[in-house]
Amino acid sequence: MKVLLSGCLLAAAAALVTGCRSNESAPQAAAQTVVAHVVESSQQQVPIELRVTGTVHAKESATISAQVMGRIEQVLVHAGDSVRAGQTLVALDGSALRASAAQAQAAVAAAENQEAAAKSSASLASSTLARYQQLQTEKSVSAQEMDVVTRRAQAAAAQLQAVEAQVQAARDQAHAARIMLGYTRIAAPFNGIVTARMADPGTMAAPGVPLLQIDRTGALQLQVTVDESAIGAVRLGMKTPVSIDGVAPPLEGAVAEIVPAADPTSHSFLVKIDLPPSSQLRAGMYGTAQFPNGTHEAILVPQSAVVARGSLECAYVLDSQGIAQLRYVTLGAVHGNQVEVLSGIAGGERLVDTPEDRDFAGKRIEAQP
Prior knowledge:
The protein is an alpha+beta fold. It is built from 3 helices and 23 strands. The chain has 4 domains: 33-47 and 297-367, conserved putative lor/sdh protein from methanococcus maripaludis s2 fold; 51-59 and 218-293, Efflux pump adaptor protein, beta barrel domain (Elongation Factor Tu (Ef-tu), domain 3), CATH 2.40.30.170; 66-90 and 184-217, CATH 2.40.50.100; 94-183.
């Protein structure tokens, strides 16, 4: 029994040794060779682009509000309407102001009647004084009579001046009443488009409370905010590419204004960029402007060598034996047909170009001539 067991163990050990030698001597499977176009990553100086975002605005806009308090009778426009300079936009209840204007005009008429009477009295007193002065040269009137006539003429002239002042004051009041009455008709300050309507008939209008928003017809601007640390990269008059959502191709803008004071809360400056005329542009659109801000060293690869696998970006990189390895990469700014690689690829590495949906992982790549 012991001899039989020992023989079995020796047979099993021999089989195990033979199996191990067989595995060690088996050749590894050769990698599949695939012909593909190969590109190379490069390390070079690239421009740093300052990208800032903002909103498209009209170069001129106006918030319309009332100059007097009153109930709104009519709002004659809606958002999106085109308006002309001087066109009536809102009508207020002007009954009280019309009554005040009529009362002021009546006061003018009464004062003018008093002025006419005062002029007649002053004219009569003046002619009487002239006659008495002639009689005085002839020694036909006493000094006392001459004194009385002179004082009457002076009093009439003073009365006329007082009445004339009253007439002017009444006219000024009537003019002011007409101006106030005119404020019940709110007109467009320029040709433009109504972009917002904030009031309806029946509500009360008060000075300073917005009723309408109007943008002047014509050129538009992209208004962006630039951090104070980067404002040195922006100069008046400089050209900048502007990308507007929904507008193609990108536009070329020009810096028209840099607001000199920074916002104390955000520590940023408001920059206004003039945009060229375009039928696609509308106020309120979202856009991005780019400003050059120096250079930095970066790894660049052709965009065609980068593919998406799920939600991640990756590329097939060749090792020293030409075997493709799938690497996930982090991308940066785009420069023409090349893109910056922030991580995953070093300069001078070879990559499979235009891999599309094909799987090159683990395959030997033979560069296409």
